[in-house]
Structures are given as C-alpha cells and as structure tokens.
Amino acid sequence: MIDLRSDTLTQPSDAMRAAMVAAEVGDDVYGEDPTTRRLEERVADLLGHEAALFTPTGSMANVLAVRTLVAAGQEVLCESSAHIARAELGAHAAYSGITMRTWTHPTGGIDLPAIEAMFAPDMGPFFVRTTAISIENTHNFAGGTVLRPADLDPLVGFARDRGVALHLDGARLWNAHVATGAPLHEYGARVDILCVALSKGLGAPVGSLVVGGREAVEESRVWRKRMGGGMRQTGMLAAAGLHALDHHLERLAEDHEHARLLAQACGVDPATVETNIVVVPREDAAAYVAAAAEEGVRISAVGPRAVRLVTHLDVSREDAERAAAVLARLG
Ligand SMILES: *Cc1c(COP(=O)(O)O)cnc(C)c1O
User: Fold this and answer.
1) pTM score of the predicted model
2) Where residue 293 sits, what CATH number does that domain have?
3) Fewest Cβ atoms closer than 10 Å to its Cβ: which of 88, 163, 276, 316?
C-alpha cells in the first residue's frame, strides 16, 4: 500500500528512534528536561522569537497561542476553511470563549478588503471586539498553498495600524520555507505568535510548538498544564523533533516534487501545486478513493466532490511514480 492520506502517517525512522532512545531527559513540568529545552530554544531561534513551548498537538498549540491574544468574549478573524475554524472541534470557543468570523479565499490566502470590512474595534457594550487575525501557511484544506513573507505585509501594516494581533498557524510552515526559500524568521518577524508542527512533513511521531514572546509562552505553559498537557520526560519526543530538523527539513523539496508528479497524473496543473498536498476535484470522490485502494493507493475524500493526496517522508520517488501510474490509469 502507498499511503497518501496524510503526512501525519509517517513512521519514525530507525535513526530517529535511536535518537529518541539516547535522549537525555528530566521532568519537563519541573523545567528539567534538557532535550525539550534545547528543542524549544532552537525553534524559537529559527523563527526569531524569544521563546517556544512544546505541546502534544498542533491543535493544543493553536488553542494556547490564540488565547494569549484574544480574551473570552472577543473574536479572531480567519479564513473560512482554516484549521482553527474547521478542524479543532470548536476548541477556541469551548475552552477560551472566543468567537470567530471568517473571510473566504480560493487558495486560503489573505483578503484584506474583507478583513477591513469585518474588523471591529472596541465599541464598548455594543459589538464583539476583534483582537486578533489568524492566517495559515501552508494552507491545509486549500491544498498546501503558500504565502510568501511579502504576501503578509499589507496585513501586517493593517494590524499595526489598528492595534490588532497576528497569529500564524504554521503547522506546515516548514513546507512554505522550503518552497519559497524564505528564511523561517522572515515569517516569524511578521506575527506576534505562531505554531509549528513536528508531526507532519518533518516526520516526528508527536509534537508541536507555540513560538512567541517570553510572556506569552509562559502564559501558554500555565494553560498547557491547566488543560492536562504538562508532560514529564518529553525529551524522548523532543529528540525526535531535533532529529527531524537536522535530517528532514530540506528534503521536503522531494515531497513537493512528488506531489507535482501526482498532480500531473490526476489532471491537475502541477504549477498550482506548491508543496506536498494535491486536491483533485472529483464528482465521484468516494468511488475514486475505493478504486485507488483496490490498486494499492490510499487517498482520502475531502467532502463529496474532492480527494486529497499528501506526499511525505515514507513515499519514495518510486512509490510516487507507481501511484501516479495507478491514478493516471483510473483516469
Ligand atoms: C495538522 C494541522 C494542525 C494541528 O493538528 P494536530 O493534529 O492537532 O497536531 C494545525 N493546523 C494545521 C493547518 C494543520 O494542518
């Protein structure tokens, strides 16, 4: 089976497992896990922020990050198919009392006129106040689409003018970095707080980080514990993340190449595929998924009229070519 359902399906490699076993560990709730500290410092540095916090999931990282910017009863604006709006099961409302309004963009990007029209300053006891705007890069449900650092600039200017904060859901920011060649800190510099995942394309088994100012990160540390996410010898997991940063970051370019190969086979213009996700419009999504599985290729339906293919560390060039042949044959 060639599994193209998600880049979360990767198995830790033997070398990653060896790094995990060898990790120096301590109790992270006591602040005594040296490997976790090392990972947090390294990721904060990469993104040009003061501090970072290891979390079990990207969803928890987003909940912690957004709540540092938005109080209960206030709102965050985001794109309508953003992960925070669609795939976190209402966590920002359920845990933090935050509401959302959304704009819609065909590639999950920034629609500044729509944001300007929605933006609500503090109007006392009359309207919900907008205190943050969240963007996603790469954009998962829009098909791994990329924002370049400069694409953020008009929004950054608007946010500064209005005193509204910016959150970046960068679960796959690594892919954007590799696709554009833009240094990670160029993204980091443009937002107040961001989240990155180790468990997607980087191929670690578990983990994400909240990255931002020292105060926001310390506040997130308190809330992580309050939510039951204070973990002990996390160094074994952090070691997987450090190994991934050393060995699996630049190779994401291969995943992007494999995705373009698959796009071509499915009749999608490869030039529109920027990273490792291909969304194929299919009227027969469920039947197509079943037919591909019969031929040894697992893909997923995203709604009744589209399927999604995701390339990753455990899909070799050979696998990608074989899957492309199968999908081309299915037509
Ligand atoms: C996967 C993902 C997350 C976090 O997912 P978890 O499964 O909770 O780790 C957040 N944002 C985006 C855009 C994602 O793709």
Assistant:
1) 0.97
2) 3.90.1150.10
3) 163
